[in-house]
Sequence to fold (121 residues):
Amino acid sequence: MGQGSRKRPVPRLLAKKLRVIRMKLGVGQAEMARLLSRTPSPPGGAIISRFDRGEREPNLFVLLTYANLAHVSPAMLMDDSWRLKISIRTFRRTFKIIFLRRERGLMRRNLEGNNEDRDSS
Fold:
C-alpha cells in the first residue's frame, strides 16, 4: 500500500479553537479576514466561516497568525490533547495593539491625503 492511500491526521478541535480565538478577540468573520489580510493567500470572510465550522483547514501562515493573535504556540492549535487557555487580558492587549495600528494607518493616510491637497493648491 502506497503512502498516498493513508489519511493524514486531522485535528478535531482546530475549528473550535479558531472560533474561540475569533470570539475572544470580539471580531466578526469579515474583521478576522482583515486581520489575516497580510498573510500569503489571505482568506475572505466566507472562508473564515468555513474554518469556524471545520469544513476547511487554514494554511500554515494563517495558523501562525491566529496563534500570534492569541499569544499561543501553533502546536497548541494543532494538537487536540492541548486545551486552549487564553486570558481575556491577553486578548484585550492584542486587540488594543491591532486597533492602535489601524488608527495610525488611518491617520497616516489622512495626513498623506492632506499633504496632497496642499501641494495641489
User: Anything to note?
Assistant: The chain has one domain: 11-120. The two ends are 75 Å apart (CA to CA). Helices lie at 14-25, 29-35, 45-53, 60-70, 74-78, 88-120.
